[in-house]
Amino acid sequence: MFVDSHCHLDRLDKTPDQLSDILQFAMRRKVEHFLCVCVSVNDFQAMQEAVSLYENVSISCGVHPLHQDEASTYEELLNFASADNVVAIGETGLDYFYSKDTKDVQRTSFIDHIKVANVLQKPLIIHTRDARKDTIDLLTRYKSASTNGVLHCFTESLEMAQAAIKLGFYISISGIVTFKTATELQEVVRQLPLDRLLIETDSPWLAPVPYRGKQNQPGYVVEVAEFIADLKGISVEQLASATTDNFYALFNRIHRKCG
Ligand SMILES: [Zn+2]
Ligand SMILES: [Zn+2]
After folding, report:
1. Global pTM?
2. Residue range 224-247, pLDDT digits in tens
3. What's the CA-to-centroid distance between 227 and ligand 1, angstroms?
């Protein structure tokens, strides 16, 4: 069984009926759980309502580094993120690739998220692009020893992955790894330890080969898994079982259905 550790179901171009079809399709492909990740506290309640029907969809709360025009205060974030059904804090982090001018607000927001994660003891979901040093430095400086999390949609260096793993983090790989141009990332993934690996779609964006150009959806996490299993020279079943175990170990507020 697979899980999609990071998707944005509220951002899919769909009607509520189609959302049900999209999840059914994924379940037929043995994707058993979905983590729907919040990108703006303003949208948190609407996102929560959109997925509330589905027992196998969990939610996070946070403000994406590129949504700083919708930034929340520390108190607002803490308030929303305290809800029992919120299993993680994010996505948060730093993106200097798309937005260098907002570095300062991104950093302030990231620090707030780390503090909320420390207080609530919920894992962090981190988006990081072209901000290797600052991401690791801020985590090292502000997170408490027991706070952990994941670097999602990872496309950075092996050194950065190793630094994050040392801090207790997992590394999540999206469909980018299937792109022909992603040779460096493929080499990194080959070397990442299986017990620190997660898989995701980040849908509706970044559809894996052979669906490039289409809207991505959680069912396509299977193609991500197949590609990584092949890279690592293991069976898809082994890859699925390891990444699913890792998912429940990290997001330990989600109750795993047995059998
Ligand atoms: Zn992201
Ligand atoms: Zn995302």
Report:
1. 0.97
2. 999 999 999 999 999 999 999 999
3. 21
